[in-house]
Design goal:
- The protein is an all-beta fold and 58 residues long.
- It has no helices and four strands.
Amino acid sequence: MPILAEGRLLAFAVSLAHRADIGGGCPSFHVAATMEALQEALRILPLRLFTAEGPDPE
């Protein structure tokens, strides 16, 4: 969901409520037996798609 201030886009809000639904060692939000973050679930890092000038080519 976009976050606006004075009519300008500041950021997007994201819910991580269903993080365990996309992978991991067992069905749970946090598994104490994991040794690395990659064992917990699929991780998608933040990525800038647009700048003030338009789509970000990188």
